[in-house]
Design a protein that fits this description.
Layout: E1 3-7, E2 10-13, E3 18-25, E4 33-39, E5 46-51, E6 58-60, E7 68-73, E8 78-83, E9 92-99, E10 113-114, E11 118-123
Parallel strand pairs: 2-11
Antiparallel strand pairs: 1-3, 3-8, 4-5, 4-9, 5-6, 7-8, 9-10, 9-11
Amino acid sequence: QVQLVESGGGLVQAGDSLRLSCAASGGVFSSYAMGWFRQVPGKEREFVAAISRSSVFTWYGDSVKGRFTISRDNAKNTVYLKMDNLKPEDTAVYFCAATRRSEIVTIGRIYDYWGQGTQVTVSS
């Protein structure tokens, strides 16, 4: 079993930067591709970013390309999401997730484990 715990969320102003962290325990961290998703009440879960097992490949949702950067440190069992130039529309609960698959990492249903989420609020 894999447990994921997000941290780093908070209230910031538009244009600010924030870095989210997701600490994993259990399993073998390096055997999982990792992803970030976000969700606003009343809306569908949205893909944000994903990273392959050894950081060779990354994927980003269209709405965050050029602003967000995903990275991981397998020695620390941690995946990060660096968010720059935040906008009010980035406000959401952000979740990290782990999957053994890497073919369709933008699809939430393929992920096996999920964290509890961390709130990010961006004011204008």
